Amino acid sequence: MNPEKDFAPLTPNIVRALNDKLYEKRKVAALEIEKLVREFVAQNNTVQIKHVIQTLSQEFALSQPPHSRKGGLIGLAACSIALGKDSGLYLKELIEPVLTCFNDADSRLRYYACEALYNIVKVARGAVLPHFNVLFDGLSKLAADPDPNVKSGSELLDRLLKDIVTESNKFDLVSFIPLLRERIYSNNQYARQFIISWILVLESVPDINLLDYLPEILDGLFQILGDNGKEIRKMCEVVLGEFLKEIKKNPSSVKFAEMANILVIHCQTTDDLIQLTAMCWMREFIQLAGRVMLPYSSGILTAVLPCLAYDDRKKSIKEVANVCNQSLMKLVTPEDDEPDELRPGQRQAEPAPDDALPKQEGTASGGPDGSCDSSFSSSISVFTAASTERAPVTLHLDGIVQVLNCHLSDTAIGMMTRIAVLKWLYHLYIKTPRKMFRHTDSLFPILLQTLSDESDEVILKDLEVLAEIASSPAGQTDDPGPLDGPDLRASHSELQVPTPGRAGLLNTSGTKGLECSPSTPTMNSYFYKFMINLLKRFSSERKLLEVRGPFIIRQLCLLLNAENIFHSMADILLREEDLKFASTMVHALNTILLTSTELFQLRNQLKDLKTLESQNLFCCLYRSWCHNPVTTVSLCFLTQNYRHAYDLIQKFGDLEVTVDFLAEVDKLVQLIECPIFTYLRLQLLDVKNNPYLIKALYGLLMLLPQSSAFQLLSHRLQCVPNPELLQTEDSLKAAPKSQKADSPSIDYAELLQHFEKVQNKHLEVRHQRSGRGDHLDRRVVL
């Protein structure tokens, strides 16, 4: 510093003392400056006051020599003390050079800068609030200072500034929020602690409504919640807890829509505390905001569904996620199936021309059209309050179905998640069937594939969805409802119902789909498509048929109409080119028909064949059952067509008797001993009126080798009484009652010819496979 330079009105002694390396001498100089400035204040000499401040700033505080900078800082503080209440007029000139020293490499200088600013702020009090942002910016940097003395000094200044803000009603929150939003993303733990402490203070001030600006800082708060420091995490938990309490008290003033995507992002984090906290917030948002959250359903489901499969290690998160899922599902109502332009609530909505939602909303992962992609953009879309309130609430099925389809297709997804997805699909088909049928063709393949799931509960839920698709009235028309996005119209060219057979077994009526008989409910076109694809899946995946087939068909008989299912499957199998599969499938269906409690009513319907519908059903089943000779006989036993059963068994002599054939006869003998055929065994008492029943059973006996089944049937037939011993005077006069007359509407001769035709096809196929041509070898394969 040039000693000859004129620093007036500062005397040479003051200048010399300000440059001294000893603190005490600089302090003496500061007292002299204070005295000098007081005189100028008394004289109202603003020009000299500004000159003193400028000199201390430019020539000392911002100079190169460290001791000069220290002298300048203490001199500026002395000026502020001397100015008193008038210091507010010169705050910009007083504060700026001090804040510059906050970045100095010398820790002692940074400490003196803290001390100087403390004195300036202490004198000015509320007058410093217009300069709050620059003060906050400087303090946020000092909060992370490595020097403990500097950090201690900054904490004193920080407490003073908080006191001033708390007692003032002139704090400019609007201009402060951008700075807070920027600083909240700091990774330094001390800076984070500083930010959290300020948010707590601002939240506690009654005149400051920080809740209005929560969308601006919520993402940063969740970032801080993942800090490694336990104390910081605890502080952040307290802040978020206070905000959530405020939200519950004043839900009408909360901008739920603007924070929905933020919660979606943090609900998918790997940090348990962040995920649990975000999920709790999501739960409260759904319950408080209600249908306002519907446009964000796809993102919410992306975050919530995987959590449902968590084990006990994350039990808390799983429980909260389950509540979120259930609450969100309840928000979907039948009114969401109406065309958007017809909704009463939306007719009243009149958004302002400039209040449309930003385009980013539609493409954000958690937004209305979001997909199941879990990688979200780091930038969060923020919407204006006006647009949120005025925009109509719409359920975006495109995004929801995409998320559900994605999760159901993922084989790594847990069982509970898959069940939740299927519950959602079922719920949507119940509440919004017209719109959901636009997505049925995209969902149908994965729903069929899910039938191979390892869990019975998953399969059961899957069948409920498929049954609803197959029976919903919305699927009976060519136009299921309004489009909810791209045209996903079902291609009905694949759903053509076969031409009715000779016996009038299947009927079609316009767009009503498949109609099995006048006595049963009408199914839509997807019912027949479902039956076709189910049989195709059984054909390509034989293990599925063996392990799950009976369970699937029995459950379908409970969910839909058993007669429709058997009628349609029989008709499809009649056209099956894979004869071996047709035989296997017929055997499986026959076993289900004879043994399942779910089919009790259908068995009773077939037992008497009193109505035209039951006769029609019998003819339809019979033609397909012909793929398997033994099952055809069992069907005749069930329907009490004993004469025809006897005629069929007579034809067995022309068939190729194999080990599999004999095994099926063995199973039939076992079935005859079951409760299902109790009425048949009782009819053996009436020998005179049931001769063909006894002949048929003897025919089966003659087919069997000397085996346990042979012994079982032989013992049963030995119990048949002598008809002469059972005759009484009344029985001689009575007309025959037990022998059921053949129904005149059933052409049994034609059925027998059909049986022979089908068996000849099977025989030809077997010989072609074995390379024996048309040579008929009737040897038993042992």
UniProtKB/TrEMBL annotation:
Name of the protein this chain belongs to: Protein VAC14 homolog
Self-association and partners: Forms pentamers. Component of the PI(3,5)P2 regulatory complex/PAS complex, at least composed of PIKFYVE, FIG4 and VAC14. VAC14 nucleates the assembly of the complex and serves as a scaffold by pentamerizing into a star-shaped structure, which can bind a single copy each of PIKFYVE and FIG4 and coordinates their activities. Interacts with NOS1.
Gene Ontology BP annotations: phosphatidylinositol biosynthetic process
Region spans: Disordered: 334-373, 471-513
Record's keyword annotation contains DNA repair: no
Gene: VAC14
Signal peptide residues on this chain, from the entry's feature table: none
Family: Belongs to the VAC14 family.
Organism of provenance: Macaca mulatta (Rhesus macaque)
